[in-house]
Amino acid sequence: MKTKAWVTGGAVAVLLAGCGGGSDGGPSTGHLTLAITDAPVDEASAVVVAFTGVSLKPASGPALAYHFCAEDEEVVARREACDEPVVRQIDLLALQGEARETLLDGVELPAGRYNWVRLHVLADGDADDSYLEDTLGGRHPLYVPSGDQTGLKLVSGFVVPAGGQADFTIDFDLRKSIHRPAAAGQGYRLRPALRLIDTAESGTLAGEVDADLMLDEACTGGDAVYVFAGHDAEVQDVRGDAGDPLMSARVSMDEDSGAFGYRAAYLAPGDYTAAFTCQGTDDDPETADAIEFRAVANATVTAGAVTVLDLP
Question: How many domains does the chain have?
Answer without folding.
Answer: 2
